[in-house]
Write the structure tokens for this entry.
Amino acid sequence: MQGIKDKVVVITGASSGLGEATARHLAPLGAKLILGARRVDRLEALARELSLPKDAVVETDVRKAEAVKRLVDRAVSLHGRIDVLLNNAGVMPLSMLEAGKLEEWDRMVDVNIKGVLYGIAAALPHMIARKSGHIINVSSVAGHKTGPGSSVYSATKHAVRALSEGLRQEVKPHNIRTTIISPGAVVTELGDSITDPGRAEYVRGLYATVGIPAEAFARTVAFAISQPDEVDINEILFRPTKQEY
């Protein structure tokens, strides 16, 4: 894992799941972490456990552009730069379209799409100025396939992939790398936001039968970050070996 030590890495959604696992994995490798999430108490506990400075934690609701900018600016104020942005925050309240759960649809669009855009907007000026940086956006297997109950969630994750490909092409003149990571059934709290009983039962069953730990995602992030500057890992799709969908 050469190439990770001393890199300034900003992680959204770092209070649990994929973000927390990535922080735990990167800290011993020497990354300088800046952690953002809404649940500050959990962030602070994680920071203490990883021996991070207190100001490495920033309360961040990715639905608010100014909050994401504050997170990125904290990294720059502490370390003079941002090397990696992991746009990880996401929600997955699956439901059938006929249920008409408009508030849940709005939340998915705000977190899963706008949150990624706000991260890009906050990080790009700093990376362009330095002609260096790496933006990692989290999509999903659902960003490649759509099934009953996942229409809106899949739409947001397809959008992440489309945004990321456009970003990849736009930042080539600035020597900036981009990566899309699309996990399959990784066991996290993501399914806890599902209010539809049928979809919730399906996800619980999927996690119980084929789910893999969040550390699998963390290792994937580390692989992308650790590549030499001339190597740009643009997309990684991974699933549990037993997962069919």
The chain has one domain: 8-238. DSSP finds seven helices and seven strands in the chain.
